[in-house]
Specification:
Elements: E1 6-9, H1 15-21, E2 29-37, H2 55-67, E3 70-74, H3 75-81, E4 90-93, E5 111-115, H4 122-129, E6 134-136, H5 144-153, E7 158-161, H6 165-174, E8 179-185, E9 206-214, E10 217-224
Parallel strand pairs: 1-9, 2-7, 2-8, 3-4, 3-7, 4-5, 5-6
Antiparallel strand pairs: 8-10, 9-10
Length: 226
């Protein structure tokens, strides 16, 4: 067992203590948050993460959102999960620059688009979100190193990504992820469900920093080894 690993009961922590337990080690800091079954499914049978999460996961999910300066989420996940406009600025990562329907009426500055120069929806995104809220970060692929730096330049140093799995793999491949927050719910689903990272092959070492437990659910902080 790592000497640096903290083992705590989630129910024993106040909201302030829980927030402090997730304090970043540096700035800027990009953490990715996922929930998974014990056999590795990141989604339920309906293709949504909400099918497998529970009260313990929701409490940490809310704590991480409260800490965050901004959210970074892939457009496909936003559409599938039907995101509403969150409290903090939401950065949509999309090579097509298509603004998800549930976000089209957001107040200016609450939703940003990270996209590419070749995106079919670039002009529409600029009209919908405002010129300053559309970040063109590459010709055909979003430069995720530049994205992290651009967000930090806006003062958003604590960055939270909520997926999806292909964006997570791309972030890992780009070397910009600092931390994985992973909830393991005590259930098995079988089948061929999507894992938390898909697409790009990566080889990233992690070290455990925190493990919380509640009613059989395990919630961990895993730091990326540099």
């Amino acid at each position: 067992m790592s000497d640096d690993l903290e083992l705590l009961r989630l129910a024993d922590l106040s909201d302030d203590e829980l927030a402090a337990a997730y304090a970043p080690a540096a700035e800027p800091w990009l953490r990715v948050n996922f929930v998974s079954t014990v056999d590795g499914a990141a989604q339920g049978s309906d293709g949504l993460s909400g099918t497998i999460n529970n009260a313990a996961d929701k409490r940490v999910f809310d704590a991480l959102r409260t800490r965050a300066d901004c959210l970074v989420v892939g457009a496909g996940t936003l559409r599938a999960e039907e995101y509403d406009v969150p409290r903090v600025p939401l950065v949509v990562v999309s090579r097509s620059a298509d603004v998800p329907p549930t976000l089209r009426d957001a107040p200016r500055g609450r939703v940003l688009m990270a996209t590419v120069a070749s995106a079919d929806g670039l002009a529409d995104a600029r009209s919908e979100l405002g010129e300053d809220n559309v970040l063109v970060l590459g010709d055909d692929a979003v430069d995720l190193v530049r994205l992290k730096a651009e967000l930090a330049g806006r003062g958003w140093t604590e960055q939270l990504c909520e997926g999806g799995p292909s964006l997570f793999a791309d972030l890992l491949a780009a070397g910009v992820v600092d931390e994985l927050c992973l909830t393991l719910v005590p259930m098995l689903t079988g089948g061929d469900a999507v894992r938390i990272a898909t697409g790009r092959e990566v080889d990233v070492a992690l070290r455990p920093a925190l493990l919380l437990e509640q009613d059989g659910t395990l919630l961990g902080r895993w730091l990326v080894s540099r």
